């Protein structure tokens, strides 16, 4: 049975899952370089891709987690797995390749993401930036790390002094408050991958991220970002429902106040 009650127990879980993800990332890079990808489209959307590696990665991670934690429930990106109906107990989130469009078209800016929640609360998260070979891992109780290096709590910067990351699709569509947020920030960026966007927040090269995120897009990043004192909230100030998609702002508390005001005005 997993020990979630002590830092030592959480560190043991972190080490175990980190080892699986590193191995899987190496296998993914080799497979991407050495074989033709089998690509299909979800619901006929040519921007919403799935590959054979998305599916095999998800199955590999689920098998590892089930053997490690027989009480596990799952929320996964790819179809074919029984989905958790509530956040009670241990819920594991799996995004086997985040940024599949980037993965297929550019072979850059994609990640493997896993998270563990207990009774609705984020416990540990893992984001592996596969092309760059970087693992972000940990949580509030253990601290947050880039490989073996501890990361620092975020400085509470204002929007005018910050780099922000926004959803490109929603920016182009003119959805509120994406355009105003991008305009008032020092600079804005678009990456096409939630995982890669979160890595920018965790290293301090950006200070806010606004997008509509599915549960598997958000779960690992939330666990890590909250460990560095970012606020992770819906635009109405409520906590995200981790079983549904949410329009989520991950940002410093000062930026949160500024953006919430944009929404209300």
UniProtKB/TrEMBL annotation:
Domain of life: Bacteria
Name the UniProt record assigns to this protein: Inositol monophosphatase family protein
Source species: Fructobacillus parabroussonetiae
